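[User]
Protein folding is very new to me. Any chance you could explain this protein sequence and its structure tokens? I have pasted everything here:
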Amino acid sequence: MSIATPSPRFTDPAVFGRVAVLMGGTSAEREVSLDSGRNVLEALRARGVDAHAVDGIPALIDALRGKQYDRVFNILHGNKGGGEDGVLQGALEALGVPYTGSKVLGSALSMDKIRTKQVWISEGLPTPKFVRIAPGSDLRAAAASLGLPVFVKPSCEGSSVGVFRILADSDLDAAEAFAAIYAGELLMEQMVQGDEFTVGIFGDLALPSIRIVPAGEWYDYHAKYIADDTQYLCPGLEGDDETTIRDLALRAFRAAGCSSWGRVDVMRDRRHGFQLIEINTAPGMTSHSLVPKAARQIGIDFETLCWMVLETSVDTAAGPEVGAR
């Protein structure tokens, strides 16, 4: 299936003004964000953009109060000091500073896996059965209600931080130890038996799917960011199946109030078909990251991808928002 390749809207880097590439922060995904941020910064500068690294939200707010930047390329990951939970977006909206990525609602909702799934269910979209685990709740009772195998994960983290694969009752020991020290809610969901996919979203376009084939038993933090033997097959599917997964991902992205760009993770259950897992509103831009791989499949190189993501912060109806300094 052919996909029409979008083209950049601008050619002059001056349209962006002075750009803050926001990275690092204080979330559990700091190191991944720093890696992503360095790559984005290099790509934008290579295209002539006046781009500068800013580490974390407090440093950004101080700089914006001093009128140092015209817009923000947000490549923070995670919450609690990461830039994906709506807090950063709310601050930038209040300051009138344009930025990349989803707005307040889409960012806050999709950061919370439990609430995202509740929205999907209300929209009739498929997602694995789950149980919300409040702090202090009984994990073993929840596992018994769902039936093994299950995954246990924080509702508001990413990059496979704090994820446990529960195949037998004995596997719950480690998850219980983590739950005892973790202050937030946990999500326990039925494990999908089948293939793992991800679909990058850019505006109204769903990029070609990627089928993820880790060398190990599952796609954990090591397989995502360290291992070189994970296979990424793009496009991950063909024909009607590829059309279906891309359509489902775009519907899921919109249902959660997301916009600009992002990534939707999907599994294909051997019995029940495609199942939505989660949304990432500030996808990684590391050497192992998936949105750049999908973009390359339709002829968009990394530098152009970063440029076009930055373009989403420009409201063409109102004209470029340059000159805030």
